[in-house]
What we know:
Layout: H1 12-21, E1 39-43, E2 47-50, H2 53-64, H3 69-83, E3 93-99, E4 105-110, H4 132-137, H5 147-158, H6 165-178, E5 180-181, H7 192-198, H8 201-207, E6 220-221, H9 224-236, H10 239-242, H11 245-256, H12 263-267, E7 272-274, E8 277-281, E9 284-288, H13 295-306, H14 316-337, H15 348-351, H16 354-362, E10 388-394, E11 400-406, E12 416-417, E13 422-423, E14 464-468, E15 471-476, H17 484-496, H18 502-507, E16 511-512, E17 520-522, H19 528-536, E18 541-543, E19 552-556, E20 559-564, E21 572-575
Bound molecules: 6-diazenyl-5-OXO-L-norleucine.
Amino acid sequence: xxxxxxxxxxxxxxxxxxxxxxxxxxxxxxxxxxxxxxxxxxxxxxxxxxxxxxxxxxxxxxxxxxxxxxxxxxxxxxxxxxxxxxxxxxxxxxxxxxxxxxxxxxxxxxxxxxxxxxxxxxxxxxxxxxxxxxxxxxxxxxxxxxxxxxxxxxxxxxxxxxxxxxxxxxxxxxxxxxxxxxxxxxxxxxxxxxxxxxxxxxxxxxxxxxxxxxxxxxxxxxxxxxxxxxxxxxxxxxxxxxxxxxxxxxxxxxxxxxxxxxxxxxxxxxxxxxxxxxxxxxxxxxxxxxxxxxxxxxxxxxxxxxxxxxxxxxxxxxxxxxxxxxxxxxxxxxxxxxxxxxxxxxxxxxxxxxxxxxxxxxxxxxxxxxxxxxxxxxxxxxxxxxxxxxxxxxxxxxxxxxxxxxxxxxxxxxxxxxxxxxxxxxxxxxxxxxxxxxxxxxxxxxxxxxxxxxxxxxxxxxxxxxxxxxxxxxxxxxxxxxxxxxxxxxxxxxxxxxxxxxxxxxxxxxxxxxxxxxxxxxxxxxxxxxxxxxxxxxxxxxxxxxxxxxxxxxxxxxxxxxxxxxxxxxxxxxxx
Length: 576
Ligand code: DON
């Protein structure tokens, strides 16, 4: 059951996928987009890798002042909301995975929730078909933002106690109030985003020039309203965001734009601490994000399948073939089984069991690709979606933070709640608007991920920490919608199995298969003979421009090595 991504999505990632999809030859005609090499840094006492340099340096500064990784991550999270507005946010949500030096592992779920007025018909048209306009481009798509609650919870429970929230937010407030010169990476290349922003005067006034053009490198981005919102939170804590004038302005803006969010929806929002998904891989411990992300479950499932093979010695074509086989099996399980853990019973233990992986592995033919249609519901032995941003932090005390957060599309819906400076997400497209109908990332889902009041849509974000002998070894994660989890998988396999250092692993061309469509997306840079070997086994190769960005840290005997993914530009690894 081959499926193509839906047309006319004004979203750069998807435009790139569509472009790539139009290229029939496995010999990639995209050599101009060859991936560069990761900027990397080595340091002994602390490391931050983030998609924007000012934010990364703010994190390092907190570490230098004696802060722990959580303090630094919270400061980076608020800073990116100012310096990297297409994905850093207050009006979106995300996930933070923390490893503490005392051995505790924590997952903080600050995913957006659907307003009470959303139900399983909300994103359908009059004929009962999924209506992408509603789920991607209308105010119905806006989930109740979780970022402020999540960052504040992390700080309150796991910060060092040496800083107040206001201390950690101060650099972000100054950057919003005083402004800063934008770079090519801060803004999105025209013409895609101006179109999304232009329809909302409250957004256009901040992010576009008076003639409607995107800000050009060197232009100053001043966000006075955002500075005001940040100051209110710095003074009053998260309740100042969820219960008071900011919440009222957000609800009013959403409703004026045709959405259903109320001030009560904001008032009742809670970030939730959850048990991380755990796995092991060749003696390492995997700590990752549980539902409402599919990421951790899929990652552990894929690693479990792959553990049965000798990836270190396989030739590259065979290695990639096996990765693809593992990917489609895990993505099929995602579609069928996973959803908001407060609403559905996710079979996490079963899907992440070694024995379950062994059964999947038994059906893998090393010479022939398994068609996606062969692993639909019940195909198993037992029945039963660059506009996100990831940063990694390690401190000198042995704590690590892996954080991915998002507005979904670049600048989210593009709507700024007037008077707040806060861009609002369109995260609710991550629900399965209708069973078996793809979202913007081509991901399908069923009842487990149906839209409903208060529900959290299933995510692919996969902030992950790999431990070696109980200590942080790798901290990784990525944006990229459905491609996130397979990017994280390849960073881990490239380091552990293929012996790459973190900068090489982060830079290496990636492949991706998400079960539906039955295609293997490949980035530029893989040898033609490898692609030909995959095709010979039955894989359908589709060229794809790079758009994940796995800003990662590896702990080595020589110190902490940070690697800033070269794909998007602008990312920085900085340490001390
Ligand atoms: O939560 C998710 O899985 C998506 N909303 C993430 C979106 C994303 O990574 C956009 N970047 N290409």
